[in-house]
Write a structure and sequence with these properties.
- This protein is an all-alpha fold.
- The chain is built from 23 helices and no strands.
- Helix 2 (18-38) packs parallel to helix 4 (66-78) and helix 17 packs parallel to helix 19.
Length: 534
């Protein structure tokens, strides 16, 4: 079931998803090592468990959740405790009745908790600033409380449903793929209540000991603990595998840059598959009974398992075909969520690379009409129109993109500077608007002074205006920011040539060719200089 589950396609087919698979390997190694420690095979297995946990964390941060999973296993499964026995121990503590398991457990738990605290402290210190995310990446950020929390809580149902029925899995759930919850009376809140309530009830049932097979907090562990308690142990472990690895990506405690992602369900799916398999096994045992109803339930269990495996396997094959290329991936997702303008924009870029600019333009038009308040479609459309030499239309689109980007705090300053630079270059194509073009490029440099292309573009316009010293200084700034910028070296050489310094111009052209040997303009200028010297 785990091998054929379609939710794993992104983690396996996508290169970035390899982090999830490797993290999963070390996550399991951490659990296996810790299990050996609980069996009394030596405290060194705790260190091996922590080392595996560290390796998992280095691949994916949610690997740190192996710590609470190990603690849950130790407390409720290895030591056969329930909620009542734990409460009894803490509220009626006595040295004479201290169970034998408590000291080894506290020793192991202390090592895990110290590791967890050290990790959290280091992680917080490494984050110099609080991360910010674009609203289009996590649309619930635009909502006020409590609707933001209601929407994020609703995602627990969405993720649970994707594990149960992965027929609508998609790699990009942004921009309207899941409508926002803006009212307390939204009927989807009932699904949230049912999902969280079911998980909570199962959790309490699994750890709430009602059979009371021990009276000393789990000290008598001879043979089987009873079939009923064995069932609870499987349920406890499965739920811990589902719940804890999902917490970092749930948005319920710390906002993240997405609402739903297949890859974050890679680890929780282990617990899901464990519980489904356990449930099916229980049904199959009923088929051995002479009771007709039990036999029917057993038959339904067999048929359901076969249908589930066939459905998941076929869906996995289909999803792998979707992940064949970027275009097939974006196309499959856009069919499911046509209002997701980010997907439409990605499709447009792919068709542009394939040379089908006409269809790409249709996609960009559709994107800006569907979602006129998002900057990305306008920027992509403007760049396409600029390449098609439709400068007036491109300017309109890019100006709109610049306005929307200014209102979005999570947009990188470099992207904003590039839009201003592109606008300035478009304006500068008209000799009467060169000063206006300089003004826009200046805005870009003010926003992000480290953009070498902006300084190079500014120098080119100043060169056309015959302001050679200023142009030379701009080219030098671009070269300082990016020493391998061939066009900046060429433009600097051209500027100093027009200033009368042929020797330094020759050096500039040679440097350009050293970086890009196919730079035709540099070859032409250098040949002209050499011929004049002869």
């Amino acid at each position: 079931l785990f091998a054929v589950h379609p939710i794993h396609t992104e983690a396996v087919a996508g290169v970035v998803g390899r982090a999830d698979t490797i993290a999963g390997i070390f996550f399991l190694l951490s659990l296996i090592s810790y299990r050996r420690a609980t069996k009394g095979e030596g405290f060194q297995w705790v260190w091996w468990s922590l080392l595996s946990c560290l390796c998992s964390v280095l691949c994916k941060e949610m690997g740190i959740m192996s710590v609470p999973v190990c603690l849950t296993y130790d407390l409720f499964i290895a030591n056969e405790n329930g909620l009542m026995s734990i409460l009894k121990f803490f509220f009626a503590y006595s040295k004479k009745t201290t169970p034998t398991w408590i000291r080894p457990f506290l020793k192991r738990a202390a090592a895990l908790l110290v590791f967890l605290v050290v990790f959290m402290v280091l992680r917080i210190r490494m984050m110099s600033v609080t991360p910010t995310f674009a609203v289009e990446d996590n649309e619930a950020l635009s909502l006020d409380s409590p609707f933001r929390q209601l929407h994020w809580a609703y995602m627990t149902f969405i993720n649970s449903w994707l594990l149960l029925n992965p027929s609508w899995i998609c790699h990009d759930w942004r921009m309207g793929a899941i409508p926002l919850i803006k009212s307390v009376t939204d009927p989807r809140n009932l699904l949230t209540v049912v999902t969280l309530g079911t998980i909570g009830m199962l959790g309490l049932y699994s750890i709430f000991r009602i059979d009371g097979h021990t009276t000393d907090g789990g000290n008598s562990r001879k043979g089987s603990s009873g079939r009923k308690y064995q069932n609870k142990k499987i349920l406890t472990f499965g739920l811990s595998l589902i719940i804890f690895p999902f917490i970092p990506a749930s948005n319920l405690f710390i906002p993240v840059g997405f609402v739903v992602a297949e890859r974050v369900l890679y680890l929780p799916s282990m617990g899901f598959c464990l519980l489904i398999t356990y449930g099916v096994c229980r049904l199959l045992k009923l088929s051995r009974s002479r009771n007709c109803i039990h036999q029917l339930l057993g038959f339904l269990g067999k048929a359901g398992l076969i249908l589930l495996l066939v459905f998941h396997a076929s869906k996995t094959v289909q999803r792998n075909r979707d992940w064949y290329s970027k275009l097939t991936l974006y196309t499959s997702a856009a069919k499911k969520y046509p209002t997701n303008t980010h997907l439409i924009g990605n499709m447009g870029r792919q068709y542009t690379l394939l040379g089908d600019t006409k269809f790409a333009e249709e996609l960009y038009k559709y994107a800006v009409e569907v979602n006129p308040d998002v900057w990305l479609p306008f920027m992509n459309y403007g760049v396409l129109l600029k390449k098609a030499a439709r400068f007036d239309e491109a300017e309109v689109m890019l100006k709109r993109a610049a306005v929307l980007m200014a209102d979005e705090r999570a947009v990188s300053k470099e992207k904003i500077a590039r839009v201003y630079t592109t606008l300035g270059n478009i304006m500068a194509k008209n000799s009467s608007r060169m000063e206006e073009g300089l003004e826009f490029i200046g805005k870009g440099i003010e926003v992000y002074p480290k953009l070498a292309e902006a300084h190079n573009s500014r120098g080119s316009i100043l060169h056309k205006l015959k302001r050679l010293p200023e142009a030379k200084a701009s080219f030098e700034e671009a070269i300082e920011l990016n020493p391998q910028y061939a066009n900046a070296h060429f433009n600097w050489g051209l500027a100093v040539l027009h200033m009368g310094d042929r020797k330094r111009a020759e050096e500039g052209f040679k440097k350009t060719l050293a970086i890009d040997r196919n730079h035709l303009q540099a070859k032409s200028q250098l040949m002209s200089l050499l011929q004049e010297q002869q």
